[in-house]
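Good morning,

Both structures are done.
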Amino acid sequence: MTLQGTNTYLIGTGKNRILIDTGDKNVMEYQKTLQGVVQAEQVNIEHIVVTHWHHDHIGGVEDICGTIAKQPKIWKHKRSEHDDKDEPLSLPLNWLSDGQEIKVEGATVKIHHTPGHTTDHVVLTLLEDNILFSGDCILGEGTAVFEDLYTYMKSLHKILDLNPSVIYPGHGNIVEDPIQKIEFYIAHRNLRENQILEALKDNAHKQLTEMDLVRMIYTDTPEHLWPAAAYNVNHHLTKLTKENKLNQIEVEGERKWQYIFTSNL
């Protein structure tokens, strides 16, 4: 299933297979590995499913099509509902939808739209074995980056509800304790969010920037890493604003945030 030395996956038991992700462009070692498997097992890649638009997942599509995979259907979710084309522009794409199933002999994968890392990100469940292919939503090591924390957190809870038995990630080692891993991701983000909320609540009479909050919260972090910390804090602030927990104010061209006190009466 896992192609040696990569985080792309060739699944199915019959002649026709599904390839999940394609690696980066012009990676000859990967292409040789894939071609070797296809030839040794005398199989055909009928479907290529790309988890999202980042080059290290979709970049190898053009290298594979017409050589290793003769006429596969290439599947990807739209980056927005108004998209009528997407990477790679030279090849026709079939658009994925949430809940869609793709089937070959021995493998049925179900698509779950999980935006946050990117707007088009999907994860797949292999229904026969309850395996989750997580793309970049959950990694084998470390934590994932995201474009939008609000939707990313919703996607993490969606994955938790899928209750997978094992996770095959887009990067890193196979995750054998998936529920613990997903709960860790959620708890990690919630901890940082609570720190931000408490700092704003304790300074509710002030309007604070993300860097003000970094100075309060990241006390053990070297100062040269503060800009990166401010980037993450900004994601949390955007999420909390969408949830109507903060006010965003512009003061002399600078964005600031203030805690909103709510009444339970």
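Second structure follows.
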Amino acid sequence: MKIETGQVAVITGGASGIGFALAKALLARGVQIALVDIEAPALTEAAAELSAQQPGGNVAAFTADVSDAATMTALANEVASRFGGVDLLVNNAGVGGLLGPIWDSHPNDWPWVFGVNVFGVVNGLRAFLPGMLARERAGQHAPGHVLNVASLAGLTAPPFLTAYTASKHAVVGLSESLAQELAIVQSRIRVSTVCPGVVRSRIKESGRNRPPALAGASRTPPEMLARIEAAFAAQMQNPMEGDAFAARVLAGIEANEPLILTHPAENAHALARLEGVRAAVARQAGEQQAA
């Protein structure tokens, strides 16, 4: 997809971090932004900052909970009324969950994390893709693009953040399935999944938006939790700045990259997991030959 002036991008989780960085970069390219977030005050502030960067009504703010399907359907109708159509759908909203081993996880961690990280993506696709496909079939615009934000954790398996890791693996898998589905129905809409390492954001504070009905606290013994938190704090040092992240992602979108990686130094972790798959395949081949 070539990013051009006048296109429309929907960005969930757009009031801070990765979403806000992408909004800034796209706005600088002349793209109109439908900025979506669950935090109304932060959203208002972010939209005002973006509007000051690019006056002229190119930014509209929408408060929405991506985990609620009906809300997302209503959002799609609002965006269509405001902008007329969507060229780029960015499913970015995400939460981190609680640290700790899976056996100590709180039962409410799972519906909370999956509700935002997985069903938030599903709801975004269900709400916006039909309109994008209809416009494409009517020849009303150039092929669109879907960007689903996963994580390097979606290609690896880091410990002590299991709900988050499982949710990001789900995002990678559903994105790959979606790309095949669009190809089968002969759509030219492309799908990219970005799997970043550590980027400057507020994901460590995502518990601020945890619904009261899904409240939960860590059940991990304090001494173990302290060691886990110290290890994670060390890994979170020197995060990539949002501007650099956004530049890499926009280049990946324009190149129609199915998988966008942003942290070269971390790629060995993903390759190590693939080596495990290759080793299993080789073992099975050897067993079949022996038989």
